[in-house]
């Protein structure tokens, strides 16, 4: 009777070697430690502080859920949430829509020898400090001495109080933040465009499809994972803007351009009400988690091809 001979490599295949597991853990340990120290531990600390009344100068007093009860009756907080949502959604739209249009123009309409220059031009503001960018734009948008109003005057238009008007201050924050961050979206879109096989476009050209048909039927569906990624990332980042409104308008006039992060900062280090600020931070984190979960839930609708 012939006995089947099992190759040595097959033995033990059901059980991964212990050394491989230890090696994987060793490679993952820096990320795990970083997450525990810089994400999980601070979050737990903020959650702990949200149940206390603490002003940094004295021992904290346990107040239970009083800080969260204050959130419900804080009308100013609701207004700040509204201004934050307005600016964040506008920034999101600019990064996702305008970023896509600019990326397509750079890849399809721009001469090759100019592509590198324009890519660098769009990406450069992204790597510069947000405070430095906001400070430069604060001078450019100055009502009396700013270059923007000077140009408007030259072409015969009235000067605009970009930073002192409740209508224009949020617009200024949107423009400055979008100008700084859109380079990242363009770079990601370019990577997505370059991953689309050229054979698909060539086949569409042979079939007589024009540029719009090729974009709508090939480019846009193939970019749906990239679009989804940028929607999630830009939603989280745009809701957390701080430096631009802080430097440009200090959140004013009133609370017209104030964001949740700025309001939290003012309550924590302006009023020394760290317990209430911690409660704001916890609820804001939950709002961002909920928005991200909704986006992932809807991700199937944003994916236009299988």
TrEMBL record:
It is found in: Cell membrane. InterPro entries: ABC_transporter_permease, MetI-like, MetI-like_sf. Residues 81-295 form the ABC transmembrane type-1 domain. The chain crosses the membrane at residues 22-49, 85-105, 117-140, 167-191, 222-243, 274-294. Keywords: Cell membrane, Membrane, Transmembrane, Transmembrane helix, Transport. The keyword Transferase does not apply. It is a multi-pass membrane protein. GO terms for cellular component: plasma membrane. Pfam families: BPD_transp_1. GO terms for biological process: transmembrane transport. Belongs to the binding-protein-dependent transport system permease family. This is ABC transporter permease.
């Amino acid at each position: 009777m012939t006995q089947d001979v099992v190759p040595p490599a097959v033995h033990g295949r059901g059980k991964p070697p212990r050394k491989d597991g230890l090696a994987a853990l060793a490679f993952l340990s820096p990320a795990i430690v970083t997450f525990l120290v810089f994400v999980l531990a601070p979050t737990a600390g903020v959650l702990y502080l949200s149940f206390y009344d603490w002003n940094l100068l004295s021992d904290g007093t346990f107040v239970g859920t009083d800080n969260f009860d204050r959130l419900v009756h804080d009308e100013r907080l609701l207004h700040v949430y509204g201004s934050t949502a307005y600016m964040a959604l506008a920034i999101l739209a600019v990064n996702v829509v305008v970023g896509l249009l600019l990326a397509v123009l750079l890849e399809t309409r721009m001469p090759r020898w100019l592509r590198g220059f324009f890519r660098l031009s769009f990406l450069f503001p992204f790597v510069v400090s947000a405070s430095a960018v906001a400070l430069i734009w604060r001078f450019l948008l100055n009502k009396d001495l700013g270059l923007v109003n000077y140009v408007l005057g030259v072409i015969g238009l009235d000067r605009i109080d970009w930073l002192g008007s409740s209508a224009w201050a949020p617009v200024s924050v949107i423009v400055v933040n979008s100008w700084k961050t859109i380079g990242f979206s363009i770079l990601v879109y370019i990577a997505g465009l370059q991953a689309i096989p050229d054979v698909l476009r060539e086949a569409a050209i042979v079939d007589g499809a024009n540029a719009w048909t090729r974009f709508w039927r090939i480019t846009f569906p193939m970019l749906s994972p990239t679009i989804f990624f940028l929607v999630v990332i830009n939603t989280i980042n745009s809701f957390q803007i701080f430096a631009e409104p802080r430097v440009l308008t200090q959140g004013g006039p009133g609370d017209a351009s104030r964001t949740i992060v700025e309001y939290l900062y003012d309550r924590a280090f302006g009023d020394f009400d760290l317990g209430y600020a911690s409660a704001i931070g916890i609820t804001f984190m939950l709002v961002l988690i909920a928005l991200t979960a909704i986006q992932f839930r809807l991700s199937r609708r944003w994916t236009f091809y299988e």
